[in-house]
Design a protein that fits this description.
By secondary structure, the protein is mainly alpha-helical. It has seven helices and no strands.
Amino acid sequence: MILTGAVLALMTFLDARTNFALELALAPGGRDAAMDHVRAQGVDPAALEAAFDTWMRMSAWPVIIVSSAIFIVILKLYRPSITWWGHVCGYLVAMNALSVITLVAVVLSLTGLEVFAAVVGGLAMVIYLAAFVRIGAGVFKLGPFKLVALFLGVVIGNILVAAVMAGLQFALAIYIVSRFDLSLLRLIEISIEASSS
């Protein structure tokens, strides 16, 4: 998790583009209309976007930790005899493998090598899945069928984690915008209307 935090910290420190920008929640071509609505409500769009970006970045690590509990439960289902702490350590080995490669992808992206960053990012997921299989075979002593089941469980777990993270981040986004007496859903609606007209 420390390496995951390091990736997020590096992206924040270097002001790298992340998925936390308010404009990414708005329909393409409808941002200006949404920001006009923000101004009409007496709110500075720059202040709203800065607060949104800051709080979404700061919440990324806690959201990752909360959603990661899904993987700990998945691992526990495959080898209940191992302690919860053992499963946490196994999960962290896989996460660290992912984070090290992701760190390289971030650096490549920041140096303008987006194609290489995308390839390395894809490689990171392969290494992450391979780390889970290696943990299953070596530490959990799972046979071939259980290893396939573990692999499928991790893939399904990734989908569940993505859904949980998206839900938590969306709820936080709604809260952040509401602190400015605005509605994120209304801003999205305005941006969709403007982009479709």
